[in-house]
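Hello forum,

I keep getting stuck at the same step: I have a sequence, I want structure tokens, and every attempt I make locally crashes halfway through. Rather than fight my setup again tonight, could one of you with a working pipeline run this one for me? It's a single chain of 110 residues.
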Amino acid sequence: FIVSTLQARIRLLTSRLNELEAQLTGDADNTPSSNDSSDPRDKPVRDLGLTDRTRNLLLRANLDTAGDLVKYHEDNRARGGLRYIDGIGPKSLDEIIVALNRIGLSLKAG
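Reply #2:
Ran it on my machine without issues. Output:
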């Protein structure tokens, strides 16, 4: 359990470091950003930099875009909360919140 948790954190940090490196080296300027030309809510869940486990849980729940995610709140196991989805625990929830914050979005208040 600890090993898989550490692996998930490493993947998340590696993804974020790659994004920062691209920004610092100027590669980000050469690549069209979906945030510049379109609504960030249209960004596919597959492109949010989530771990495979979290991404697959969301896709199985038919949450395909960031816009689908922002309709939910983080209330602990309440209907309408992301934790209500089977398999979404506190670590997955934190990962989703970070990914949404990176593109300027957040979960619904409440």
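The helical segments are 2-25, 27-30, 34-37, 52-60, 66-69, 90-102. If your local run keeps crashing, start a new thread with the error log.
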